[in-house]
From TrEMBL:
The chain crosses the membrane at residues 232-252, 264-292, 670-690, 696-717, 737-761, 781-802, 822-842, 848-870. Pfam families: Cation_ATPase_N, E1-E2_ATPase, Hydrolase. It comes from Caminibacter mediatlanticus TB-2. Residues 7-79 form the Cation-transporting P-type ATPase N-terminal domain. This is Cation-transport ATPase, E1-E2 family protein. Keywords: ATP-binding, Magnesium, Membrane, Metal-binding, Nucleotide-binding, Phosphoprotein, Translocase, Transmembrane, Transmembrane helix. GO terms for biological process: proton export across plasma membrane. It is found in: Membrane. One of its GO terms (molecular function) is metal ion binding. GO terms for cellular component: membrane. InterPro entries: ATPase_P-typ_cation-transptr_N (IPR004014), ATPase_P-typ_cyto_dom_N (IPR023299), ATPase_P-typ_P_site (IPR018303), ATPase_P-typ_TM_dom_sf (IPR023298), ATPase_P-typ_transduc_dom_A_sf (IPR008250), ATPase_P-type_domA (IPR059000), HAD-like_sf (IPR036412), HAD_sf (IPR023214). CDD domains: P-type_ATPase_H. NCBIfam families: ATPase-IIIA_H, ATPase_P-type.
Amino acid sequence: MPFKIENINNLSIEDTLKLLNTSKDGLSSKEAKKRLKEYGYNEIPEYKEPLWHRIFRRFWGPIPWMIEIAALLSALVGRWEDFIIIMIMLFVNAFLDFYQEHKALNALEVLKKKLARKSIVLRDGEFKEIEAKELVPGDIIKIKIGDIIPADVKLIEGDFISVDQSALTGESLPVTKKKGDIAYSNSIVKQGEMIALVVATGLNTYFGKTVKLVAKAEQNQRSHFQQMVIRVGDFLIIITIVMVAIIIFYGIKRDENLPELLEFSLVLTVAAIPVALPTVLTVVMAIGALNLAKKQAIVSRLAAIEEMAGMDILCSDKTGTLTQNKMTVGKPFVIKNHSHDELFKYAVFASKKENNDPIEKPIFEYVEKNNINIPSFKLIKFIPFDPVRKRTEAIIQIDNKQIIATKGAPQVIIELSNLTDEEKKLAYKKVEEFAENGFRTLGVAYKFDVNEKFEFVGLIPLYDPPREDSKEAIKEAKEKGVEVKMVTGDNVAVARYIAKILGIGDKIYSIRELKNETHDEYIILAEVISKALLKQFNLSEEEIKQKVNAIVNEVKKEVGEKLIKGSVKRHESEIIKIIEEANGFAEVFPEDKYFIVDELQKADHIVGMTGDGVNDAPALRKADTGIAVSGATDAARAAADIILLAPGLRVIIDAIKEARITFERMKSYTIYRIAETIRVILFMTLAIVIFNFYPITALMIILLALLNDIPILAIAYDNTKIEEKPVRWDMHEMLVLSSWLGVAGVLSSFTIFYIIMVYIHAHPDNPFFPALPNWVDIKNYSSFLAFVQSAFFTKLVMAGHWTIFNTRTADWFFKKPYPSKILLFASISTAFIGLIIGVYGFRLITPIGWKWGLFLLGYTIVWFIFNDFVKRLVVNYYRKVKGVNVI
């Protein structure tokens, strides 16, 4: 059974060696081979779906079925031009879907490639280089500066190493590891060299957990957009099938020509099925993606645009997104009798610029920025920081005068200095203040003689400052109805300080407390025991308090990664409530980010997640909208839906605005499409069933479908409003409005039906309506019927194009935002083409002439205005009575 890292975190080196049945002499090649068979390779196992299967899946499912049925029906009735157009739509949708999935699959590939390639291992009593994938639990390896740690290891020999594990845990600074500590796979060694024992490999490593979480996040889960398309498609298909079935039933009952009846029914079915719906909406999103690209946001999954429009919670990592990812000097504390410049002078003496240490770098930058004069000096000796001494020390020489300067952990520097009790008390108070605000503090001191005590100069607080645009961006996000929750691997104090500055809120919790995985038991025990022991010595209460705090801080550091699980478990509903109310979480690991997103989604939130490291990949994949920030790792980019090219939250706010614009375009088209289908199919069915009258022919249905769908692509370029709150698909609301508009369209069709078929047929020479063209014989039913059908075709084409101007905005059609020039041109020109076809016929239909053409143009415009009244009544009713926005 493979060993998991949590099983051996708390074991001593000797117990760990015993558990793994190994020694400091390493394994033999024979034993290593045996274990390789037992544990498997130190790599990420991968399942590759066959290419044919990935392609086949593009043509299987509710949306492809809808298009394929339409294509089949077109072929059955011999409408090959429709068949070709529909098949093109099918393949375009399949290609776009395949391409998006291909990009998503790269996440696992990138994570796999991140594993180290080679490792120096102790086998058969000697160190040799092997492929890292051949490492097994129990191996003894050597790790040194510059190495990528190839597996989870326990450090067993050497002084210390400093490792950068920011891509795994999100910690912004390198972490010092010493003998007995665990170092994680894929961390980078920044300083030092040690011998280590391999304790976990492959998927059992900390890194492996991240990979498993990425795989766990459903790759093919349907987005809200896909669900909406399926539901709209199902609704329209069911209506169409029911209506067509009624037409066929009554046709057979009336002994109509069966082949002609079936052909007409099939053509009507093809026209009613919204085959263009997925394509039009995809084009709308693609245009939105292009607009986002101009704003430094690259979209890798189109449906993520729609998800972002409805996003109501944004989980943002701290480092690099909310903050500058650059350690900066805060307001320093200087002890009396010393100056600000002295503090930084001695700090520079105790530093080494060429080390490029992230703790020392801000000190040099501060000195340069503030023009602090540093005298020329000769470095005699430099002792780097180590986890035992907890400080650096330098012996320098200035004008034949020797100075010993030191900097490091403030508690250590204070205790080494010649401070009075009052000065010590003040210094410790400042250390506590800095710690409460999340600062990392350095103490600075110096002396002239080795045998003297150090002269304490002061404290230098360091922190990662917020980005200048973060506070304003968070404020705007709240105004847009998006709550920003900080999710960081840093400690609670740091998170609370940044959250306070940025106005995020003060409810920042440790994720360990939420999940009942806290080291409070250790802390309380350490506090009780240390107090009891220290009271045996002749110490003041203040000294006892200071020493207890120092011991407690040390215990916190030691057991920070060695969490024990609490016995009381919260109910999931309570956990969800806490997460919803929280403003952020600290001390977060990869599985915690995934957990937070998952719990919020269970509460019906649409969740966005920002990230930049390997540790963020699972949550980025799980989130409704995964956002890889500027400078993100390849793994994070591959897992994300949107990749930012510019730093900070400002880009995300711009992306939210663009996403909501795109959503409004999609919604207006969807309402239009439903309304048009109801208008045509309901009118056709009622006319045929009640009056035994076929309003238009099969050819006219095809022409109507083509003229209605082709220009509607211009909706992708329409001007629209930006909603102030997150927007979502609501089928009930959309169906209500589209149904009312559809019924209004049916009413207008039956009104013109009465005018022509009843009134004009009885009063051909009336003064109210245009005279019939001279080529129409009112006494000849076939001639008159052909004219009536042409009139209905012309009316339906023009009325359909005006409907989009009803659905594009909730306000009156003549109010801002005005339609774009492209939409106006496309709609009016195509409506005009329909009018010209109706007027002249072109041997396709019976011409109606200009008098009737202009009359129908005016008639449809009047009904367009009436439809806008209907829309406003429905919208106002839902806003006032139901409290919701329909459009």
